[in-house]
TrEMBL record:
CDD domains for this protein: ACD_LpsHSP_like
Residue ranges the record marks as coiled coil: none
Protein's organism: Secundilactobacillus paracollinoides
Listed name of the protein: Molecular chaperone
Positions of the SHSP domain: 25-138
Lineage of producing organism: Bacteria, Bacillati, Bacillota, Bacilli, Lactobacillales
Family as reported in the entry's similarity comment: Belongs to the small heat shock protein (HSP20) family.
Length: 138
């Protein structure tokens, strides 16, 4: 979506063009679309993070809570024929989500990221069995 100036009296704001780019490129969403499926053996998480790079995504599992944090920095630089900078624009985008997924085995969590789709598998810990002890009465 491009915003055009309605007439010559309208003040041009160069950041408006950048905002349009940001809206178009990132889909105008500030949240990540996430699907979580629980099976008997694991949790399966899929999170859509288009436009983010793998090294900008940080995952943490602590106190039965999965945290997904994604950060994206964008810098655009426009130069003229002599190499002089005419315009430089920067944008930063950070989104974060937390999900309570109790009983996952933190040492066995696996994650992949491809084509803007983050996939995690969080295997559940084996149920702890209580040892039964017979107590003799004297």
């Amino acid at each position: 979506m491009m915003r055009y100036l309605p007439n010559e009296n309208t003040v041009f704001d160069p950041m408006t063009v950048f905002d349009d780019f940001d809206q178009d490129f990132f889909g105008g969403s500030t949240t990540m679309k996430t699907d979580i499926k629980e099976t008997e053996n694991d949790y399966q998480v899929k999170a859509e993070l288009p436009g983010f790079k793998k090294d900008g995504i940080h995952l943490d599992y602590n106190n039965d809570t999965l945290r997904i944090n994604a950060n994206h920095d964008l810098t655009q630089e426009h130069k003229d024929e002599q190499g002089r900078v005419l315009r430089q624009e920067r944008s930063s985008r950070n989104i974060s989500r937390s999900f309570y997924l109790p009983g996952a085995d933190a040492d066995k969590i696996a994650a992949t990221y491809d084509g803007g789709l983050l996939k995690l598998t969080l295997p559940k810990r084996a149920p702890e069995t209580e040892d039964s002890h017979h107590i003799d009465i004297n």
